[in-house]
Write the structure tokens for this entry.
Amino acid sequence: MAVAFNFFGERERTGLEERAIYAVEERFDEHSETVLAAIDYLGRIGATEAIPVLREVAESEERRFLTNTIRALGRIGGAASGRVADDMAEYLVEFYEDRDLDSGPQREIILALGTNGSAAAVEFLSAIADNSESGQFLRIASLESLSQIGNPRGLDAVLASVSAGEPHVRAAAVQALGPFSGSAVDAAILDAFRDSHERTRIAAAHASRDRRLVAAVPYLRFRATRDESQAVREHSIRALGAIDNSESMQVIEELFIERRNSARVRTTSGDAYAKQPGPVSGHVYRGNGRGKAQKPDRPVQQLFRDSKQDNGPQYGTNYPSPYGGKGYNRKILCLGNRRKQQPCKSGRRNQGSYRGQQSGACAKGNANA
């Protein structure tokens, strides 16, 4: 039965509510896996009729079921919203305060309040986020929930946590700023780009991406080109792609064309460029049945032409070129013989095994590009 609950729960399909509630009520006679699957199922479909039995399980504090039950109650409240969500938030806060729980169940209650989404929990969550004695794991969970709720009354606690002593708390606070607005929020995100910890700088890139913060483009440009952390560079490139204005796309083009950049940076740049809406993205170079490739729109065509002039990524002679010409009906972006680190040579590609085809010679280019 656990398989059925999991199958229906993943697809959020109703129909098994009565059987799931029965499994929870008779949990002492059922396999633990079945009961856990039933609890998760009830939460995923937002079954408000299951609230009484789930509260009964939570109040029994059976350790094997407690975490899943708290999570399910948060989901049900979030699906119902309105008065049900407010009542659920009050119940979870009271459950937290009246019991001597371990940090694990405490964290689950905090996250469940975020899933529940009721503004009734903002004051409680703000108090935890703003208290350095709460511990960084509970503070991080509180910041995440405040961000999910997105109520302006929680903004002061998030801004205060941006200057916390623990770098992980600072990073969580910066990332939690995404749904909020205002000049103070923008200033906090931009200031986080100067943080000494890489997680905080990554969080600043995330927040800039979520808000499509145009003012962050110069900061993202600097981090995408000069940051010592590879992860920060990649997240900054993705944020530039999400902002999607002329300045940010120019940075992405330059990063893709510059052959001295690492393969990961160039791949991330190309991916961010190709995902943009409109005439820039969505093109697959298909053959027309006679060995010729269709021409893409001008922006992508120009990008690959510039890359070719700079000895960047090339198209093999036996494969479609962005500007037409002979080739097979497959597209390949050739970086040369990377395995041997030798320049590409003109002529046909190797006709041997699949491995040989991937590492063989191709059109003019530089393997070190």
